[in-house]
Amino acid sequence: MLLESVKVLDVDICIQQQDKFAARTRASADLSAILPYLNAIFKSADYNREADSLTFIHGIIEFSLIKDQINIKKFANRTELHELLDWMRELINDIWESRLELTPMYAARRRLPVINIFSLLPGTNCGKCGEKSCMAFAARLNKLEVKVDGCPALDMTGRNKLGIYFE
Amino acid sequence: MTVYLDNSATSNPKPESVYTAIVEYMRGNGASPGRGNYALARDADELVYKTRKAMCGILGAKRPSEIIFTSNATEAVNMALKGYLDAGDRVLVTGYEHNAVWRPLKKLEEERGVKLTLLPSYSNGTADLRTLREMLTGVRLAVVSHGSNVLGCVTPLAEIVSAAREAGVPVLVDAAQTAGAYPINLSEIQADMLAFTGHKGLMGPTGTGGLYLREGLELRTLKEGGTGGMSDSPYPPKDPPDRYEAGTMNIAGIAGLHAAADFILETGVENIRSHEIELMEMLLDGLNSISGVVYYGPRKADERLGLVSFNLAGVSANEAARILDEDYGIMVRAGLHCAPQAHRLMGTERVGAVRASVGYFNSERDIEHLIGALSRITAEAGGGDAS
């Protein structure tokens, strides 16, 4: 087992979304070795090998990991924070146990530029996604604030191509 | 020698770890969970979370955020009924409800025009499910007592929940008499809400309990107030469990409930249940052997909870309970047990009954003492027919 426990250091209002919370926590182990495996799993991951840091998004929750720190943003309350920490601990330990069968990914993922995302969208500005234009949707998808299936008018080709980059 | 046989009212004694946990929290921590950003408050947060998680383990719930803490099962039932039911809704309800369910329902009948339909039951408490599917038509909520605190019968929960789910009717389970003492697995029996109390089968302190609320199901709040976060909003938070837990919670009680839940998980609900069945077999055999005793509910120990209600020929229930206490040191409960519906089924709504209820810490010696005492009391009263 790599990660025995995680201690919550502080909880505060999330600056990015003020009806949610953010927390800093400390893991019982240095997590640097697990980051390339998490990078391989999460398409939203942003891995910096030199800094030994990784961020990724799970649902609407943002995780940042660096050495023994796990920072979490946009959770609803302290109960959800602990649920997320349990999930993270189990995930990390499961990956650690089966790491010999997994392929780590050391390269940083390339974030698809807004204009490239836009070119795969219908371009009808139908508004069914809740945004005013397809360009606005593309910008939010680039920032991982929405999901690919948030565009109900997307055809199968666009869906498949964007699926390579986004969860 | 004193013998406590009123575990259906509240289990007594508690596991030693329960007493220790309460004192350790009060002396070693004492902070309010969710109300501060210092280590003790965060430790208190973690204690509450671990208790939710332990309750998930006992009930088979998926997420700790599905466990809402209340002060008892009564508050949990009120939260569910008053938060879910609208004017004119129809409710299907089992026929032997405790007043914790029956009174809020009658209040809603009076105030919101809620319509109550009783699931027919036989005098031994067995629910008659032959017309269940038809009875679910037009029903907005099914309210099911998992086990009667008077008859001792266990409701066929799986069958009722399955039929209700097919009919698209959510189910609220009153598990006050079963949680901790009788197996419950919400991952198999997919009830939508389940009310439990901490101080009976769960062996925790009084003043604890909770409502399991299935993820995605939202209720109107029963109370509003501080939740420790987002204080600038004039409204309760949207997400459970904070939405429903306004006000500082009974954290000393939660510390005790945590220890109790851990004790149950370590011991195993099945082992607790087996012990209680053994004691009940002995108790029912003893009652059968005494002339002038009538008892109610299922005849087999493994078909009932760890309790039995009975009457003695020539001695009223209250008098029998008084003699048992004063002359024999045996504590039982006499009367209607806050469940007049069950007494109506038994035909004892005017006279009540004596109830003896066992717990994990009772022994065969306790049962021998009770049977010996009842034999002497009935002999002195001249025997006869108690029915």
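Chain A has a mean pLDDT of 92.
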